[in-house]
Specification:
Layout lengths: L1 H15 L16 H13 L16 H15 L4 H12 L14 H29 L5 H11 L4
Amino acid sequence: MRWLWSVLRCLPLLVSAPLAAIPVGTPLEFETPAQEEQYQTLIRELRCTVCQNQSLVNSNAGLAQDLRRNIYQMTRAGQDQERITEFMVSRYGDFVLYRPPLQPNTYLLWFGPILFLLVGVLVLVAMIGRQRRAHDKGLSAEERARLADLTGQRL
């Protein structure tokens, strides 16, 4: 009875062995060149959600390895690129895409850099204007009189 319990405890390890993560650079077998091309395209166009701005092809993170495994299995099962992409977006959100669609929930991704640039320019213009106003206080009445005496003109 004890050996049966030991075998049952090891069963999940045996079942999950074929589902091991795929490290970067692991040679994979595909049924057709089209499947291999689809796989390569997807791992280049999808982003690792753990890493900062790395595609799945460049990331060694555990999640990226699991995503590569999922994409490989789905590709081998005959699913097309759109269906795999939809699955990844439904599971990880639009951030998984390097080129997220232009929609209300991604406006910040698309327009955020421009917005930050405009805010920076406005802050810079305000600081320059404040410095100019501080330097252009004007001359006092005493300074005007002295300047008029020096130049011989009436101010």
